[in-house]
Amino acid sequence: MEDEIKKRNIIQKSEADVPVIEIKNLHKSFGTNEVLKGVNLTVNKGENLVILGKSGSGKSITIKCIVGLMRIDEGEINVFGTDITKLHIAELNGIRVRIGFLFQNAALYDSMSVRDNLGFTLKRHAKDLSAEEVESQIKEILDSVGLSEAIDKMPSELSGGMRKRIGLARTLILKPEIILYDEPTTGLDTITSREISELIIEIQKKYKTTSIIITHDMPCAKLTGNRLMVLKEGVMHAEGTYEELEKSEDEWVRSFFL
Predict the structure, then answer these.
(1) Cα-based angle 178, 181, 182 (whole degrees, multiple of 5)
(2) What is the pLDDT of residues 142-151, one digit of tens each?
(3) What ranges do the domains of the chain cover?
(4) How far apart are the first and last CA of the chain?
(5) Residue 8: is its pLDDT beyond 60?
(6) Which of 31, 22, 57, 80 is nearest to 183 (CA)?
(7) The ABC transporter domain covers which part of the protein (predicted)?
């Protein structure tokens, strides 16, 4: 296991030197509460970047800003080399379709079956597909997350882990180049959390995705992250591999690993 994790921390230089996301001096306040106070980060092509931080530190806000779900107060957010903060909505939507976002609760439509949840998403963005092509892509993506048998189930019939997988399938069906994971293992038992973490790795390898993973789950961070960053008091306080940060001389950073 340790050898596998070490191997995952070695990104091919041809991929790692190509930034897909670059955030510069990001500020975001809510009234008098300044949450982000100059966040800087870069995510390289093919990399899984894990962001750690205490509750309320602004981790989820950071990734919501990346897809334009929140307007920033100051700074730059470059995605695929374009500063999205300067885009009109039509241009922003052109970037968004290349980004998948897995919400904490999977955000499935409760009144739709698994097939309809996936089909609705696909048909919104690929109107020229035939019914047969839609069905084929739904089955392919369900197979990728190991839930082919759930195609006719309703969300209420799914366990928490299954809902996460279907939420991920709905994200994957548009074949995004970037995936933003917001607490992908929250509320899951230890075994299911590990299964979701392993699925994140499989997706990175199979689809060549670039990802940011927000998590409090340190086993998930250890397994999935090529690199970790720690958010403290509105700025990125530390970064490195899991092993480097675990041995940090900074007592606050080490507290995450206890």
Answers:
(1) 145
(2) 999 999 999 9
(3) 2-98+177-257, 111-175
(4) 20
(5) no
(6) 57
(7) 21-258
